[in-house]
Amino acid sequence: MTVHNEALRDHACLIVHGPDQPGIVAAVSALVSRNKGNIVALDQYSDNADGGAFFQRVVFHRPNLAAAMPEIEADLAATVGGLGLEWKLTDQSVPKRMAILASTSDHCLLELLWRHRRGELPVTIPMVISNHTNVADDVRSFGIPFFHVPSQGPDKSEAEARILELLKGNVDFVVLARYMQIISEDFLDAVEVPVINIHHSFLPAFIGAGPYKKAKERGVKLIGATSHYVTKDLDEGPIIEQDVARVDHSMTAADLQARGAYVERAVLSRAVQWHAEDRVIRHGNHTIVF
User: Fold this and answer.
1) What are 209-214's contacts with CB under 8 Å, separation 24+?
2) Half-sphere exposure (Cβ direction) of 191: Cα atoms closer than 13 Å
3) Which of 43, 99, 179, 273 could form a Cys-Cys staple with 290, CB 3.0–4.6 A?
4) Which residue of the set 10, 75, 186, 235 is catalytic?
5) Helix, coil or strand: residue 217
C-alpha cells in the first residue's frame, strides 16, 4: 500500500548534481515553469565556480503531480541530462520505506520508532530485524513487524542471506540502530539501497569494547556521535551528521555512556530525517546536506 503525506501532496523534490557550468539554475527553473510547477524551496552549492561540482535541491508544487511525472522525467532527461548532470525526482508525498537493524541496545531503535509514531519522520517502517530478541516486545508494541535473525560465529553469510531475503524489494534504505555486527561488502553490494549507521565519535580513538570506560580513563572533555553511510571501509563512509556534548571530571563512565546515548539518538534521527527528505547528496566520501 502506498502511504501519502497529505501536506506534501503534489510536491516534488528534484536533486541535480554534476559539473558546474553557466545556465544550470536558469535551465532547471525554466523546466519547472514549463511543466506548470511552482518552486517553493531551492538550495544550491558549487564547490568551485571554475570547473567545480554543482549541487542543487529544488522542491516544487505541481497540481496532479503523479500524472505529470513521466512527462517531467522525460524533460529532465533531455534538458538536465543533456548538460551532463545527474538528477533524481521524487514525489514528496510518498514516504520512503525504512528497515531498522538492531542488537541489544535499544535507545536509537526506540527513538526512531517513537519519532515515527509521532509523525516526525517521513518514512514507513516495514520491519525491524535483530540478532537478539530482547527488543521484540517493544517493537511489536509500535505495531511494527519484528524478525529475529541470529548471527553467531565468524561466518555471517547465512544471517546476511536471510536479512537480504527480508529486505529485497521491500525497503528504500536501511538504518543500523546500534546493530553490533560488521556488514560485509557482499551484503552492501546485494542490498542495493543506502545503509545508514550511528556510532560514538571517538573513532579512531578508543576502538573496540568499552569506549566510554577508555574515554573516562583518558579524561576526555567532549563526547559525541557520528551518523554516516556505510561503505566497505569500516566506519569511514560519507558523514551525514555529527554532534558533541561536554562532560567533566565528576562523571563516571556510565554517565558518559548515558550522555553519549542521548547524542546518538539525536544525531541518528536527524540523519534519517534528512535522508528521507532527500536533503543529502553523496559526493565521493563527502556529503552535501541542504
Assistant:
1) 210/253, 212/253, 212/254, 212/256, 212/257, 212/260, 213/253
2) 27
3) 43
4) 235
5) helix
Q: How many CB atoms lie within 10 A of CB 187?
A: 22
Q: What is the pLDDT of residues 61-75, one digit of tens each?
A: 999 999 999 999 999
233 is catalytic: no
Rounded to an integer, what distance in angstroms lies between the CA atom of residue 193 and that of residue 198?
Answer: 17
Can you read off the three cell numbers belonging to residue 214?
577508555
pLDDT over 60 at 2, yes or no: no
Pick from 170, 180, 99, 106: which is nearest to 136 by CA?
Answer: 106
pLDDT tens-digit readout, 137-192: 999 999 999 999 998 878 889 999 999 999 999 999 999 999 989 899 999 999 99
Question: Is pTM, for the whole model, over 0.90?
Answer: yes
Q: Using DSSP, state whether 114 is helix, strand or coil.
A: helix
157: helix, coil or strand? helix
CA distance linking residue 168 with residue 172, whole number of Å: 9
Listed in sequence order, the residues at least 6 apart from 191 whose beta carbon sits closer than 8 Å to its beta carbon are 164, 167, 168, 174
Could you report the per-residue pLDDT of 214-272, keeping only the tens digit for each?
Answer: 999 999 999 999 999 999 988 889 999 999 999 999 999 999 999 999 999 999 999 99
Task: State residue 218 phi and psi, 5-degree precision.
Answer: -85, -15
